[in-house]
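Field: COMPLEX_INPUT
Field: COMPONENT_COUNT = two
Field: RESIDUE_TOTAL = 736
Field: MODE = joint
Values follow.
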Amino acid sequence: MHQEQRQRAAQLLDETGVELALFTDHDSVRWLTGLNLPAPALLFFERGSFTLFADEGFSDASSFSSEPDCTHISFVGYTIDQPIDAPSRLADALRESLANGSAKSGRVGVEDKSLPLALWQTFLDARPGCEPLSLEGSLLPLRAVKTEEELARIREGFRLVTIGHDAGRKAVRLGQREIDVWTEVQTAVERVAGKWMQMGNDCIVGHRPANMSAAPLDFEIIANDALILDLSVVVDGYWTDSCATYYAEQPTAQQFQMHKFVEEALAYAVSLIRPGVVAQEVDQKVRGFMANGGYEVYPHHTGHGIGLTGHEEPRIVPYNQERFQEGNVIMLEPGIYIPGVTGIRLEDAFLVTANGAEPLSHHDKSLP
Amino acid sequence: MHQEQRQRAAQLLDETGVELALFTDHDSVRWLTGLNLPAPALLFFERGSFTLFADEGFSDASSFSSEPDCTHISFVGYTIDQPIDAPSRLADALRESLANGSAKSGRVGVEDKSLPLALWQTFLDARPGCEPLSLEGSLLPLRAVKTEEELARIREGFRLVTIGHDAGRKAVRLGQREIDVWTEVQTAVERVAGKWMQMGNDCIVGHRPANMSAAPLDFEIIANDALILDLSVVVDGYWTDSCATYYAEQPTAQQFQMHKFVEEALAYAVSLIRPGVVAQEVDQKVRGFMANGGYEVYPHHTGHGIGLTGHEEPRIVPYNQERFQEGNVIMLEPGIYIPGVTGIRLEDAFLVTANGAEPLSHHDKSLP
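Field: COMPLEX_OUTPUT
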């Protein structure tokens, strides 16, 4: 799994002139291995080979040894024989592994925002004279282009997203609370998946004072209300994202008008997507579309990439000069919010292709 | 909040001869502030004063400034104006804060299994000549004695645990799957809580090949089955834990006998608990009780403390020479497992008091 990701990383390291690297960022390790490992885990790169240090309780990690140029070393996690201390056991395993290697010193690529001081000290004790070279964030641009393996997980996520939205649409009834709607969504998704699923994000009635982004609470759906259901389902570590707005009754004239306008804004945003287009230009144009329609422009992103986290590159925000590339998975999510009255947001996901944008999300966002 | 915790920590630092300390372990920061903060967060100690660096999106953190000798500094988290990079923004805030302080060098207490190399470098740039002194794990013994504030959260958790178990007992019916039972439990708890709740741990039918510890899957409850529901509900960061074993039909003679024996083992374990007793002795005696009954001795702990994580001190395991103290919150959880046939575990929580053990969990663990 994820051989292509390791090839891309190895090429990057080669270009950077780095022969050794310690990947400690949890998302980096998951991206380079394809394994949805628990923390802590370490991926050690040495001249083209990768060694994964993982908690022995995560048995899937053993498959890593069957990948080309890859080794898996496990360390003790849960035990009744000594204190549970995964960071120390990982350090012990690294120390033992390094004792057998060459003692070459030089620059070592590190992710210094996640590399613990103690683990770095363990490394330095075994390889004195090594100097850290920060690779922090260097994998993010590589992660923005998805492989077929990643897309398969993401597509499965969107299958479950549709199931969640179908349940959410049905659950939005007068007198139900946000949390009641949410538990219906969660139950529907988990029963189909046949297991626990990590899920998010927002489930908010329109009459909340802050009705843009919030976890469900016990606010009740009242007359003339709308409910924003912004739903992510995470499959094998890979996020999805989606949003629809539902109504317990027929929407008011104002809600109808707003909903239609957000549909148009979303369609407009989609029409702008193709490889080579600059993210900030899409952002600016969609914000302009909202303003031209006479609506207050949403304060959040116009959209964003997804992957091992819910918000990745390319972010569709005012500062971002990145260009879209084939293989990006992006969200587009215009919205209109009248605090305390009603909020409308619609969000779809797309794969950036040679010709434009292929829809990945398929939930029903229509007016009732 | 949590002034007593900070006083205990300050006393420890004083005894250690440390005037400066960086608390970066997420659980340490939560314990020292009483705030269930998102990561990353930093608590900086300097000669009796605490400064909390927290993501501005966590608005509750501002209350920290009203505590004696405490300051709160926020840093940017989510924004559309620059890349989202909480570790760098935290480092920026620390750098700015240190620029105004005295430039005294010396030993600095650090939690070196969580302190990122980059954050340490930021600190060293501002305070050259400082030497790290590991405080790793030093708060764990202090955390094992709960305060009234902590007990209030834990008691609220156990109120929800009872609601979850009541729903679980009802949901165990022939043909239902583990995940179906789980979604009933989860829904019952979240509807009463009126919000999302972090929950765990096991929901397993007896006929699974490995029937001791596992998340719910789509295994169905079959004839003569039992189901272990091991349930934690986390309230404001504080864990609970509990276990019961349920039956879709009348238990078999073997299950009846096993269940009765585990009830006796649990009662025996409880009878051993009082301040001053050594954890490993309780462990040894309860394992002996199981063996004397002719049952295979469970391979897991006899029990454990809980708090900001699900497994804390005092662990009731073979190596642990710690003595119970008043204020410990401990779990006791004997079990019998016949792989592929049936598994029985019963677990209760207790506050260690001057006289013995006060029950904190109140779910029904009886035979049907």
